[in-house]
Amino acid sequence: MAELDRTGSGWGTRWAERENKRRRRAYEDAVEAWCLRGIRLLRLRAAAEELPAEPAADLPVDLTHDEVVLAVQPDAELVDVEDGHADLPTPELAVIPVQRTRRTPRLPNGVRVTDAGTAVVTDRRVILFGREGDREWTYLELSGLAHHPAAPITLLHTFDGGPVAGLRVPLDAAARFRLRLTMAYADFIGQRRVVLARLDEAVAANRRSRPPAPVVVTAEHAPARARLAHPAIIAAAVALIALPAYAMTADSAGPEGPRGALDGGTPITRGTGPGTETPPSAAPTTGPSVPSTAPSQAADPDVTSGAPGPRTADPEASQPIPVPGLIDPAPGPTGSPGMPSPTPADRCGAPANPYGYNYCGGTLVHEPAPDVCRWFTCVEGFWQGRGYLTVCEDGRLGMVGGPSGRCPERAGRKEPVYVYQPAS
Fold it and tell me: Which residue in 119, 138, 214, 247 is a FRET match for 382, CA 20 to 30 A apart?
């Protein structure tokens, strides 16, 4: 029979199954995001071929001869840029989609909102009908458009070198508004083919960037910490961790109480004076006499006779002995004093950890340990989660609520994670 994982325990095989399942889930999520980006780019490319005109009957704008309205965007905001901010995008003829995240895009540094209203894009200019007044930019005076990659903001640069201003629109409307404005400006300056070529490049680049399939791992790739899944090794690790503390306690205190520099209320003097006949083990006391053969009368190390005395407590003796293949114990969760208690062997499939986290039962974990992701595989954005710990169907750890840090909706059934409670 072939040796299983070099230990006969199967711990490496179990780890490989969990890790391959986790990698597969991550790969599927990446492919899904890649497909959605490709669909958006294809839609932009198709929409760039033709820009239908918008009705202008209800707009408070006087159109010039043959001027065509291409976009009407309500809930637009006027933004002004303060001087000295070089981290903002530079003008270019490109339609840059906004990077979508779970968080609401914030205003970049140095950008502030000064007005709000309705933005109108025509084939000759862009106008904001704001509450504080109207603002207009003709394409003839614009030197370029700069779309911010992380916020739905388009900055309008002018030839006169004045303060830079721009427009912020709702996130869901940013792609359409950017396309209409960019194509209208490109048509005006005769650079439509440049924008279409860049869109074609973006579509081709996305097709080439398909996420690679995950590498399949085997039991030989299992890290050393995966061995903690074996109950016998857990018991040995617990014994090694508890042994230094027990040994220190046993040496520093006997059956009659702790030892010290006082014995029976009389301090033991350093050395013996001339003519002194009493050995250190039979020093006179004011209390009842104690036989010299009593184990509690061992010589103090400070006595000049040089007889060995009890070993004093080493402040570092309580530290756990390093064990090959084990991760150094980490500090416990907030509010739990002392070193984490050893993990019981029965965890119902949960990875080995020093905090007693398990899938069997106990108390829900509302405040996870700071290094919980060293012992478990956590979902992306784990620390933005809220509520209590849950385990996803793919084995990753998440929280039950919050803007992020939760198990993906497509990850299947979720179960709570518990912590063992010490017996009272």
Answer: 214
**Which of 90-94, 95-99, 406-410 shows the lowest per-residue confidence on average (mean pLDDT)?**
406-410
Q: Which of 180, 182, 191 is nearest to 53 (CA)?
A: 180
Place of tokens 């439509």: 192
The more confidently predicted of residues 335 and 349 is 349
pLDDT given at position 422: 54
Q: What are phi and psi of 181, to 5 degrees?
A: -65, -45
- Of 29-38, 164-173, 177-186, 383-392, where does mean pLDDT reach its minimum? 383-392
DSSP SS3 for 215 = coil
E strands, 17-149, are 69-81, 111-122, 125-130, 134-138, 142-147
At how many degrees (to 10) do helices 11-48 and 174-189 cross? 40
> Can you tell me which residue has the tokens 């070198």?
161
pLDDT of 325 > 60? The answer is: no
Q: Which residues contact 293 (CB under 8 A, 6 or more apart)?
A: none
pTM: 0.49
Return the closest-CA partner of residue 239 out of 319, 318, 320: 320
Amino acid at 254: G
Q: Is the pLDDT at 324 greater than 80, yes or no? A: no
Question: Under a CB-based contact definition with an 8 Å cutoff, are residues 153 and 164 in contact?
Answer: no
**C-beta separation of 168 from 153 below 8 A:** yes
Q: Which long-range contacts (CB under 8 A, 24 or more apart) does 303-311 make?
A: 303/268, 303/270, 303/271, 304/270, 304/271, 304/272, 305/272, 305/279, 305/280, 307/280, 310/251, 310/252, 310/259, 311/251, 311/252
Estimate to the nearest angstrom the gap between the alpha carbon of 130 and the chain centroid.
Answer: 41
Secondary structure letter of residue 77 according to DSSP: E
Q: What are φ and ψ of residue 79, in 5° steps?
A: -120, 140
Strand residue runs (E) in 11-159: 69-81, 111-122, 125-130, 134-138, 142-147, 153-158
Q: Render pLDDT for 145-180 as a digit per residue (tens, 0 to 9).
A: 999 888 899 999 998 878 889 999 998 899 899 999
